[in-house]
Amino acid sequence: MSENKRRGASVERRLVSRLRERGFAVIRAPASGSKRKDSIPDIVAMKSGVILAIEVKSRNGGKKIYIRKEQLDGIKDFSKRAGAEPFIAVKLGENREVLFVNLSEVKQTSSGNYVLDMESVSNYMTLDDLIRYVESKISKTLDSFM
User: Fold this and answer.
1) Among 4, 39, 69, 145, which residue carries the largest CB count within 10 Å?
2) Alpha carbon 116 to chain centroid distance?
C-alpha cells in the first residue's frame, strides 16, 4: 500500500471512530478507491434516518483536491439512490482537523473531472458543525419532549 493510501485509510478509520462516538451507525468501504464498476463513498454514516455519504481526501501539501469524474459522479449516484447527503471530508496537513464540504462546492474542470479548491470554499463544516447539522434534521415527535 502506498504512503498516500495508508495516510488516507488512517484518516478514514479515525473519522469512523469519531462518528461512532457521536452516536452514528457507520460503515467504512475500504475498497472504495479501487477500480470498482460502481463508485461508492469511503464512509456511510447514519443517525436517526439521516444518511451521509462521505468521500475522504487527505493531502499534505496544496489546497486543491482533484477528483476523477467517474468517482464523483458515482458518489452522486450512490447518494441519490440511498437518499444520502454527499460530503467531501478534507484533511490538509498532519495537524489539521477534518473539514466537511458539500458537493455543491466542487467545481468541474474543462477536462470534465472535478476540483475542490479549499482556498475558495465558502461553506465548510467542522465535525461539530456536521453533528449539529445532522441533529437539526432529525425529526422529533411531541412525545420526545414529555
Assistant:
1) 39
2) 13
Largest alpha-carbon pair distance within the chain?
Answer: 56
Phi then psi for residue 129, to 5 deg, are -60, -40
Which residue of the set 2, 10, 17, 32 is catalytic? 32
The CA distance from 103 to 116, in Å, is 9
Side-chain-facing half-sphere of 5: CA atoms under 13 Å: 7
Which amino acid is located at 16 in the chain? V
Q: Where are the domains of the chain?
A: 3-145
Q: What is the pLDDT of residues 40-50, one digit of tens each?
A: 999 999 999 99
- Catalytic residue list contains 120: no
Q: Say which amino acid occupies 7.
A: R
- The answer to whether 8 and 56 have CB atoms below 8 angstroms apart is yes
With cut-offs at 50, 70 and 90, classify the pLDDT of residue 24: very high
Q: Which CATH number fits domain 3-145: 3.30.470.20, 3.30.870.10, 3.40.1350.10, 3.40.50.300?
A: 3.40.1350.10
Sheet with 124-125, side-by-side order of all strands: 25-28, 43-47, 50-59, 85-92, 99-102, 124-125
Cα–Cα distance measured from residue 38 to residue 32, given in angstroms and rounded to the nearest whole number: 9
